[in-house]
Amino acid sequence: MTHIKFNTMAGTGFYTSCLSSSSNLGTCWLVLKTHSARAVPGKLPGRRRLTIKAEVEYVNAEKAKELVEVDGYTVLDVRDKTQFERARIKSCYHVPLFVENKDNDPGTIIKRTLHNNFSGLFFGLPFTKPNPDFVQSVKSQFPPESKLLVVCQEGLRSAAAANKLEEAGFLNIACITSGLQTAKPGTFDSVGSTELENAGKAGLVTIQGKISTVLGTVLVCAYLFITFFPEQAEKLFQMAPTG
């Protein structure tokens, strides 16, 4: 135990005591204790105990590279399987925050159909749901004191995953602000069919030039028109020349 005393005005002061636990977590307690040079009858010195809690560190891609190469951080990729297979940091671990939703209840079927006709069609994204085993899967592979760099494509899933791991007791968590889409080619050693920054691009949005915008707009408008105005759409099809 270490005591540090601070003198203040009017003969009062306070000191801190830092207790380091011998457990693997290395928990440190910061104890603030006040006292007065004059005795106050019927009152004991006030005392307050605070816990020092680790916070997630948000860094850019270059700093993240330094954390891995110099500070020994392990990369934990929380993207879905499709993005992970397109491009990933070499020697990373993969525990997806979301997994493909294959449930077949009526509500899920409707949502999956709508998703596949929009996000799935234009961005190549699978229909997913939260991974109920995410935290437990990470715990089974890493102790709480592990240094983990949590990554995803845009930075949103990694931030959510980091928050879950912090709440679960992990002490050294870092994330790339705005995700792997900000990593320039060559920043990390990677494997896959494309660069890390392009792993989120699939479906119709990969068509280059103005055709992607025009085609996407036409298909969306056509789909909405057929869905919400089926009778009018049928009449238009009947009016179309058959050749």
From TrEMBL:
* Key words of the record: Membrane, Transmembrane, Transmembrane helix
Sequence ranges assigned to domain Rhodanese in this UniProt record: 69-192
Enumerate the SMART domains for this protein. RHOD
Q: Reply yes or no: does the keyword Membrane apply.
A: yes
What Gene Ontology terms describe where this protein resides (cellular component)? chloroplast
Q: Does the keyword Transmembrane apply?
A: yes
Q: Where are the transmembrane segments?
A: 211-229
Record Pfam families: Rhodanese (PF00581)
Q: What is this protein called?
A: Rhodanese domain-containing protein
The species this protein belongs to is Canavalia gladiata
Taxonomy of origin reads: Eukaryota, Viridiplantae, Streptophyta, Embryophyta, Tracheophyta
